[in-house]
Amino acid sequence: MKLTVLTDNNTYIDRYFLGEPAFSCFLETGGRRVLLDTGYSDVFLKNAGKLGLPAADSDFVVLSHGHNDHTGGLRPLMAAMGDRRSALVAHPAVFESKFDGGEPVGSPVTAEELSERFDLRLSAEPVWLTERLVFLGEIPELAEPRMPVGTLSDGSPDRCLDDSALAYRGENGVYIVTGCSHSGICNIAEYAKQVTGQRRVAGILGGFHLLERDRRSRRALEYLEREAVGELWPCHCTGFRVRAEMARTMDIGEVGVGLELEWK
Ligand SMILES: [Zn+2]
Ligand SMILES: [Zn+2]
User: What confidence tens digit (pLDDT) does each residue in 107-142 have?
Assistant: First the structure.
């Protein structure tokens, strides 16, 4: 599977892509093109154009969750798709209204509007996109409690049940691509092993949602070290101090727009 990062908070020196505090990446595997998340704006399309990648011509658009730093590019994507129809895969709760500090932070596009361009496949169960690539659906609490982020429209804490990830059954274990990991990076890793029937996590790329060096992040780092994850590419919502802490005991890669990985 080939993976290319289209949007991240970070851009590499001497490579003139656009960055924004958001996430999007493009996957090619088994003859299929998969766009995971759309960032906050049309930045992912601009970067994809420069990279020569047909991001608007994907077989599947997958949303890791509903927050607008992952769904904000949906409208520009629909404009770039022309008459094309794609499948859109996400958790059924992905279009719920979400708020943070009173500000709306959910998807700017409704399911009704999207259904004009997409065949919506909203599922809390895993959805296999190819023989080896699976959308995990709702992540169970297997290793740590969920952490609510913001509120839903009734004012209750948003437990981000819509937060999911992609897992790829590789030759040496499971590879995981995650958006923000609101479900907990340890829960996602455990569930990815279960769903793909793998014993080892070969690699993880994405936002780990570990912003500060606190008890939660310390436990997550202990877990990742114990699991001896092959490749670690923490980005987006992984804080600088947490990454620095990780780098003391684990070999981590620096993610930026244009990063290309080949996973077997
Ligand atoms: Zn989020
Ligand atoms: Zn995010």
Answer: 999 999 999 999 999 999 999 999 999 999 999 999
State the ligand closest to the CA atom of 160.
1
Q: Which residue has the tokens 């907990």?
A: 184
Per-chain residues with Cβ under 5 A from ion ligand 1: 67, 180
**Structural domain for 170, as ranges:** 2-262
- Here the CATH number for the domain that contains residue 19 is 3.60.15.10
> In this structure, what are the phi and psi dihedrals at residue 126, rounded to the nearest 5 degrees?
-60, 145
Residues 76-96: pLDDT tens digits? 999 999 999 999 999 999 999
Q: Report which bound ligand comes closest to the CA of 20.
A: 2
Q: Are strands 127-128 and 133-135 parallel, antiparallel or unpaired?
A: antiparallel
Tokens in use for 250?
């684990």
- How many domains would you assign to the chain? 1
Neighbours of ion ligand 2 (CB under 5 A): 69, 180
Distance 133 CA to ligand 1 centre (A): 22
Overall average pLDDT of the 34-49 stretch: 98
| Closest listed ligand to the CA of 163 | 1
CA of 243 to the centre of ligand 1 (A): 19
Residue 80 C-alpha to ligand 2 middle, in angstroms?
23
